[in-house]
Specification:
The structure is a single chain. This protein is an alpha+beta fold and 487 residues long. It has 16 helices and 23 strands. Helix 3 crosses helix 11. The chain is globular and about 100 Å long. The protein starts with a helix and ends with a helix. The structure holds one RNA strand of 76 nucleotides.
Length: 487
Amino acid sequence: MANEIANNFQEIISHCKEYGYIFQSSELYDGLSAVYDYGQMGAQLKKNLRDEWWKSMTQLNDNIVGIDAAIFMHPTVWKASGHVDNFSDPMIDNKDSNKRYRVDHLIEAHAETLEKAAADALLAEMDQLLAKDDYAGLKKLIEDNKIKCAISKTSNWTDVRQFNLMFSTEFGAVAAENEGDNIVYLRPETAQGIFVNFLNVQKTGRMKIPFGIAQTGKAFRNEIVARQFIFRMREFEQMEMQFFVRPGTQMEWYNYWKETRKKWHESIGIPAERLRFHDHIKLAHYADAALDIEFEFPFGWKELEGIHSRTDFDLSQHAKYSKKKIQYFDNDLNEEGKPYGNYIPYVVETSVGLDRLFLTVISLAYAEEKWTKEDGTEDSRVVLRIPAKIAPTKLAILPLLKKDGLPEIARELMDQCKPHFHCFYEEKDAIGKRYRRMDAIGTPFCVTIDHQTKEDNTVTIRYRDTMTQERIPISAVKNLVQEKING
RNA sequence: GCGGAAGUAGCUCAUUUGGUAGAGCGAUAGCCUUCCAAGCUAUAGGUGGCCGGUUCGAGCCCGGUCUUCCGCUCCA
């Protein structure tokens, strides 16, 4: 069974490439690890998913607004958020146990087993090497002292390496006087762009708590292990909504968004039984509750969206580091009939990986089908059963023959429909072959113009999912497809 | 990161001990064709992932490297 699913995953990956959904980045140059490009079909599907999310947040909730913050942010943002400190330590792995250690912890632990003078000398040398970022020297120090892994009891170590989970680049064209002075990071999450704009949005939008700020955009993480196609990439897109609430009410909203978000996934065609909640036992430093909405991917249950109750951690940190007050005056009356007054709002975060959502939709849509035709011969197709609402191309317009005036009628219908939804025109090859091609890219509706059209202005509409077809007036095509997309 | 497997045309694969690479499908152009990939003709497409070594000669042997998948590990 595990094998079967894995094979299916391979086929999905191949299909994505073959039909213009996803290509590996820089494939011409052998590719760049864990970076992918969306092709002509994929970019449209991804945009449709993003639009659907954006609408569900900012259009259907009158207390949620959207922003688009820059990828570059002031370096102090990442000090305040805790990202810099948590990932600046040199690490070393034991090759036998595969256990990873912080180099300073490993050496300090060893020092405790030594006499005081020896220990002090060792630690002094370590500090010196750490200050110089001398990783080769640190490794030599570990080897010279015959420091062993607590698990494998061996000294089979990798080189000392620094794990920088954030990508950095230089800001400004002129080199800095002091090295490192002009380093900026590519944001490792979009959330901070919302937090640092909290006051701007709240004041200019006259927002009243509870309210939310939504944002979609790229984020960048130097994952140590990035794999499984587009599931874990180094450059990826998040769709986040931070919901600001009165302290004490966060669990109520946490539960509200937990249910609301799951229902949203179901609304774009993800079956409820392929979704589940997974509560975090070990909480991150900023959270007082956290869970994942998981989807059953071809390679198992994995996180699709995170719901976190982030408390007032982020806003407090930014208040502290910026030395500016970040608070909200709540005029609503409490039980004693007095305003709630000033406070730092609590935050409930919903954060979906757009690429993961894409992979979810594709995994669900992909199907290989076989059946026996009326004459007893076998037939088959590969079809992407993408819900019409999010399918990249909605309608294919196909003249049965490329003569007798049929293409002209088809072109007219094309002009009539294309302002309203994405259409595809094709007159080459036999009609059956064209249907198969449309199945493979997931086009939900095909309309065929034949000789009868010239007589009674009717066309055949063919449905991807059932492969059935019916005769309808050509004038009804646009509205019918529009209804199916919206419905 | 560790271990395993793999990389030949857009896709799926072949090339039996090393002798200058082939098929099917697909694609393109045209013909034929009145509704579910299968008719006819022609054409394009590969420095065998990349670099190096052994050899008279390497897709095949050896080393390195890049990329992908699987298991473990990691994931603020």
